[in-house]
Amino acid sequence: MPKTFTSSYSIAQQSLITSLVQTVNPSFVLEIGTQQGSSSIALGKGMSSDSKLITYDLFEESYEDYPYFSTHANKKLAEQNLKKANLLCDWEVRKGNYKHFLLQEQEVVDILHVDICNHLGNLSPILRFCESKVTSMIILEGGGHNDWQRKHKFVPYKSSLNQNYLCNWEHVTIYEGSHRAITIMSRRKNDSSF
User: Fold this and answer.
1) Which domain holds residue 20?
2) HEC string of the chain?
3) Which of 28, 120, 165, 178 is the most exposed place for a label (fewest CB within 10 A)?
4) Is the entire prediction scored with pTM above 0.90?
């Protein structure tokens, strides 16, 4: 992979994402936060030829404002990286934020992956809306209170996972060292929403 290929996840976490996707065997996976496509590839590697992956990011202009200066998302680079990965699934990289999904996507989603600035303010509205649209699993980057969140005074999202509107979900956060974490939410088996 090129030197410019960055990811929020370690190689082990990317492998975990692929394994989780294979277990669910989804028809439709939605990702919010493409950056350069590394997590999109991890998702896509677990998907079959009759499945679809759509990934959104704000891309270049979204990172001109505080506190995102060090983040480098590029739609063209993400598309090149996904193309090189030779994924079996159909995939599409779209420019937009989670509001595009909230307002436009009509399909039910089997797996939702969220890798944006995951703090309480950003994540709560996504989870509130998506709880009724995601059939199997939600994968969230992070889960702890990292140095970047402390520096910019962001409230961690962990407390939002116990809200009443998420009562049909189990969740676990897996930490890798002190800087990386991934949170996995799965719909309870006795939930009859879908």
Assistant:
1) 11-187
2) CCCCCCCCCCHHHHHHHHHHHHHHCCCEEEEECCCCCHHHHHHHHCCCCCCEEEEEECCHHHHCCCCCCCCCCCHHHHHHHHHHCCCCCEEEEEECCHHHHHHHCCCCEEEEEECCCCCHHHHHHHHHHHCCCEEEEEEEECCCCCHHHHHCCCCCCHHHHHCHHHCCEEEEEEEECCCEEEEEEEECCCCCCC
3) 178
4) no
